[in-house]
Amino acid sequence: MSSDTFQPIQGMSDIVPPEVFQWQRIEETSRKVFRLYDFEEIRTPILERTEVFTRAIGDTTDVVQKEMYTFEDRGGRSLTLRPEGTAAVMRHVAGAGQDMASARLYYMGPMFRSERPQAGRRRQFHQIGVEALGEPNPAADAEVIALQVQLLKTWGISGAQIHLNTRGLPEDRESVRNGLRELLRPHLASLSEDSRRRYDENVLRVVDSKHPEDQAVVKDLPPISEFMSQASRDYFAEVLARLKDLRIQVAVNPRLVRGLDYYIHTVWEITHPALGAQDSVSGGGRYRMQFDGRTLDGVGFALGVERILMILEKLKGPTAGLPPKPPVLWIVSLGDKAFADNLRLLHELRALGIACRMDLSGRSMKAQMRNAQKGGARQVLIRGEDELARGIFVLKEMEHGSQEEVAFQDLVQRIS
Ligand code: HAM
Questions:
Q1: Residue 1: pLDDT over 70
Q2: Mean pLDDT of the 257-262 span
């Protein structure tokens, strides 16, 4: 067997101890913060009908054109592994009707994009995201930005930068596209091949192209908000005012357009210098989607968990912030009768909330002690036939090797 046999497929990872304790910490603290903002959890399937994503995200986006894991199931239906959470959440909300018109939802879990793997870019990655339903409202946009700021602070991440821009209303799209095309037309020949294609297909994406030859042209373009209606510009000004009220510092980045078509009005990305080339730890914005004739409005974001952990590692070192493995009490038995009674005790202690283990294979005392040590036991409880007859246990402190006899009735108090 080749060594590849034991590896997950490229761009996907096993998440194991001790790293997994970090994941749990991130998830647990997120849940606490979501509770403060009165968001509730939603868990949608990992697999959806393909059109859930193609319609909401947009046919000409990179995610839909190049990055989705799409296949036909046995019934000939086209299915897709979710590349993001928003469209799936909105699919649910659309089906739920008016009841969810102002729902505040959060989710965490794996997403899949068939991108070329590199540092910070995975094919299976994990997002923690929120979606707050409701009509456009600048204060609501500011509130979810504040929520992200609080999350980053809770995890001990400083130095993140919030880049903000507006995409305006859907009614502005035509005028933004025409305005951009007009200004770009004289430079078409010097744009990259990607951007020449996007000029017709999705000209907005030319604005945030990473190609140096495009950037040379784009840097002289006016902010896209210049092609928008006064109403859109006023909305954006109010978002900025609300953020100022909340003392949240942001940088307006007129080149930021985001790669998903559902956005309207406010869009943002949070970057961190510790991340390198893929420097966005979170992306979000206000959106409008149509599902079977229903129009849904909301605002939300998604943070990449792998990237949060990369930042923490850079800021604090590989194991910093890892909660220590909670100590487990090991029970060591000598003889069959003690084994049976200890097994029952194991069960009873766990019912009392005490974490404990026992070697179940009936090995020698030496082997059991070795196992306890390997398992990180701080204390070991030894009981053989003799202790059983006397109604006591021997409690051994692994750190200094001291041991003492403890009466059965004092046991729980001594170890908890
Ligand atoms: P997104 O910008 O595509 O937005 O992704 C959000 C975050 O997911 C990124 O900032 C990054 O941290 C992480 N991420 C994305 N792709 C990868 C990857 N290949 N490997 C590792 N991490 C990745 C969305 O997905 C929107 N649904 C966000 C949203 C929610 N907008 C409104 N509501």
A1: no
A2: 94
| The two three-digit tokens of residue 126, written as one number | 């994990």
Ligand 1 center from residue 81 Cα (angstroms): 15
Band (pLDDT 50/70/90 cuts) for residue 316 is confident
Q: What is the pLDDT of residue 277?
A: 87
User: Would you call 109 helix, strand, or coil by DSSP?
Assistant: strand
How many CA atoms within 13 Å lie on the side-chain side of 154? 17
Please write the tens of the pLDDT for every residue from 160-181. Answer: 999 999 999 999 999 999 999 9
For residue 18, cis peptide bond before it (omega within 30 degrees of 0): yes
By CB atoms closer than 10 A (0-12, 13-18, 19+), residue 255 is middle
Q: SS3 of 195, please?
A: helix
Nearest CA to ligand 1 atom 18: 121
Question: 3-class DSSP state for residue 386?
Answer: helix
**Residue 115 CB neighbour total at 10 angstroms:** 17
* Residue 113: Cβ-neighbour burial (10 angstroms; 0-12, 13-18, 19+): buried
Q: Which atom of ligand 1 is nearest to the CA of 280?
A: 10
Q: What is the pTM of this model?
A: 0.92
CA gap 248, 241 in Å, rounded: 10
Q: Which of the residue ranges 23-32, 113-122, 406-415 would you say has the lowest mean pLDDT?
A: 406-415
The band of 117, judged by pLDDT with boundaries at 50, 70 and 90, is very high
The one-letter code for the residue type at 192 is: S
**Separation of CA 281 and ligand 1 centre (Å):** 8
**What residues are in contact with ligand 1 under a 6 Å CB criterion?**
84-86, 113, 115, 120-122, 125, 127, 129, 131, 280-285, 287, 300-302, 304, 306-307
